[in-house]
Specification:
The chain is an alpha/beta fold. It is about 50% helix and about 15% strand.
Amino acid sequence: MIRKKHVFLKNRYLLLLDVLSIFVVSFITYFAIFTEFAFPLETVLVVSILFSFIMFVVSVLFGNYAIAWQYSGTSELIKFLLVNFLSGVLLFGAIETLSLWLPNLDNLRRANMLIVMMSILCMMIYRLFFKELYMAAKGQQQVTIDVDGKSKRVLIVGAGDAARLIIANTAQQKSNYKIVGLVDDNPAKVGKVLYGYKVLGSREDILRICQKMQIDIIILAIPSAYAEDRKNILTLCNQTKCQIKTIPSLFELMGNPEQDNLIREVKIEDLLEREPVMLDNREINQLVSGKTVMVTGGGGSIGSELCRQIMRFSPAKLVIVDIYENNAYDIQMELNEKYPHNKPVVLIASIRDLKRLEEIFEEYHPQIVFHAAAHKHVPLMEESPREAVKNNVFGTYKLAKTADKFNVEKFVMISTDKAVNPTNVMGATKRICEMIIQCMEQTSQTDFVAVRFGNVLGSNGSVIPLFKKQIEKGGPVRVTHKEITRFFMTIPEAAQLVIQAACYAKGGEIFVLDMGKPVKIYDLAENLIRLSGHTPGEDIKIEIIGLRPGEKLYEELLMDCEGLEKTANSKIFVGHPLSLSVEELEVKLDMLRSVVETSNDEMLRNLLEQIVPTYIKDNEKFNRESLAEKTIQS
């Protein structure tokens, strides 16, 4: 309320001008009509006072005097006209009523109509005039000197309300940006002057404009654009060698409305052709609200984001379990600050320790478990396969048995695309984890499900942080193979879809997330180099180093025998469970325990091949066949 009052007081001079314009227009209009007759001073005063009062009341009610006209656009102007049109209608109604006592009032309806129209026109003209003066003054102030001795010349892509916000923001912050003009694909806008700046062309003209106008920075002001559209525009902008910035997308703003900066750097995520996630918040709220939720591996990339998303829906208690104390501490401090009245419980524990798990379940009785704890690094697990089995397979088994013992409602395991036709130990162990989940469903009241997806941008072990470090050092950026592709999604997107999939869980399913189109890692490296302000192959070299042990050229999300069914969410599919009895599983796990104790890694790989028939130890042969098949298809 205080802020609104402050804005209104700032516009008090505008109110005085409005009242003055009504009186002046009224006197001039009546004076022109009554040049040869007695001037009706009483009528003029009544009409002027009445119109001023009605205009004031209606404008305050509809917030017309809370508008900052120096930053206004078409929507504010339309609102102003509609509000004043309503004031005119109310004026005529009031005059008709008052004419019962003042008969002269209704004799000059045309004069009163002219007064209303001319008054509105005057008020609109000096508002626009003051706005143009302000923008012109700010335009001069914008040419401030940067530390390197020059101002930054800016081209804005998009000529909508987002561009208006950027222009207002740069003016208000007195930045060193000198806005040169706008670009928009709407032919009706090209060549027009909007918000004080000319629309210089469409997206096809970006390269020409940047060269001609010596542009330093391009700002994308297209928050509502489709992902493919944004990628295409960014690709064009990348050819200019300008620094590229953007404003967050609408869904990014909705997810984090308290962002500090309107303008941010372009991230590699912006180049993925992925539409934003649409969630059913009602279903998620029913799943999480008031429940005790446990997240294992809660300090990791996916685990910590799961914790953030879960806390939005007010669980009764969030229990975070992790073996690595530094990550656990970081997410604890973050959530403690954001949710001081619902602080999470953070416990250091290993999923391998059955006794410790039972102690935790006994004390907190979680109703929902999200299992994100795992060894995920492919080359490291090739070197230490027994550790992958101990942690991923037997850790998951112990956690699942404990969840069953303590009657957990839902158990959701995070799986990976590497579990499909695995060519590495990590993928094979995750496939066994999926088998455990499907078998537990046969004998348990708990709904056991797995959610399978590909690589996550920015996660621990992701190529993005690695490439950034290599770029900072001046290169080279090392890519294992020029044809290698991966599915990618962002960390928040993955976490949100995991929680949404949990809402659909009935038990035994493997949910598969829509990962969009596969991305070439080589293209990813080139784009990241460009976003860093360098030219691939010139400023920063890209070096092909060869595939690592267990690495696939192409990842898959589904095995041929699983099939797919749609869910209520277009980005979540469900695979048919494969039949495997609990007895068969127990025999296989006993064999694994025996081999793990022998310290014979080759024997372990041979056994994994028996347990997981789709496991391919010879990844080199698999990659050669995949590449040949891909070549034939293309």
